Amino acid sequence: xxxxxxxxxxxxxxxxxxxxxxxxxxxxxxxxxxxxxxxxxxxxxxxxxxxxxxxxxxxxxxxxxxxxxxxxxxxxxxxxxxxxxxxxxxxxxxxxxxxxxxxxxxxxxxxxxxxxxxxxxxxxxxxxxxxxxxxxxxxxxxxxxxxxxxxxxxxxxxxxxxxxxxxxxxxxxxxxxxxxxxxxxxxxxxxxxxxxxxxxxxxxxxxxxxxxxxxxxxxxxxxxxxxxxxxxxxxxxxxxxxxxxxxxxxxxxxxxxxxxxxxxxxxxxxxxxxxxxxxxxxxxxxxxxxxxxxxxx
Length: 297
What we know:
The chain is mostly beta strands. It has helices spanning 3-12, 68-73, 75-83, 281-292, and strands spanning 14-17, 25-27, 64-65, 84-91, 94-105, 108-111, 120-126, 139-147, 163-167, 192-197, 213-224, 227-231, 245-250, 253-263, 271-276.
C-alpha cells in the first residue's frame, strides 16, 4: 500500500485529535479484533501431531535479522538480543503458538495479554536468536503469569493488552533487562520507533517465523489514550510478534515504551497497534513485585 493510499485509509478512520500534544490522529478501532490474538505456529509444534492451524498471532515484515554476531558490533542489536525473548505457548498440553516478550527483570517478561488467553496451561521462554534448535539451557519454564485487570474490558483508555510472566529462575547470565523510558514521552505523527520479534517475515508463510528480527516503523496516529498506531506499509509486526517490544531510540540507547498488540490486515501491510506501557508502569511494578514475592522493587 503506497503512502497516499495509507493516508486515505487513515483519513477515513480518523476521529477527533488527541490531547497527546495535539499532534496525533485518533483512529477508530478498525483493527481485526485482536489481530495478533492467538499465536503463530511454534517451531516446536512442527514436531507435534496436533498443531492448531486456524489461529494466529503477530514476525517482523521487511525486518532485518538480528544475530549474536550483530550484537558483538552493534549496540542497538545487542540491546535487542539481550532482552527479547520468544514465548512458546501450550494449550491442553500441546504446543499451539509463539509470541514475543521483553525481559524487564531477571525473572520477569512483559508480553501481550492475548498471548495467554484461552486454555493456556504452559509457557516456555526461549532466549535465542533462533527458536528452532535452541540449546536447552536457553529455555526457562514459566511458573505463573498475570494479565492486566483491564484486559478485555474495552475501557476508553485502551484495551490494556499487557501481561507479565514469571520465569522458574533467572534468564541466562548473558541477557539484560530492557531499559524503561521513565520520562514523559510526547510521541507525534511521523516519529520512528524500533520493533523486534520472532513472528512471520512473510505473511501466512509459517516457515518464516521463529527468527529474531528488527525494523523501524512510523507513527501515524492513536487508537486510544494508551494505544499507538503505526504505518505497516513498509515494515510491520506480524503474527508471532505479539507482545514484542516497541523501542524509542535516544542517544544511541533503546528505551522500552510499548508492546505489540494488533494489526489491521492479516497480510500485515497496513496498520499495527502498540500498547503504550508508560501509563501502566504502576501496574507493571506492583504485579512484578507480587509475582516475585517481594514487597517492592
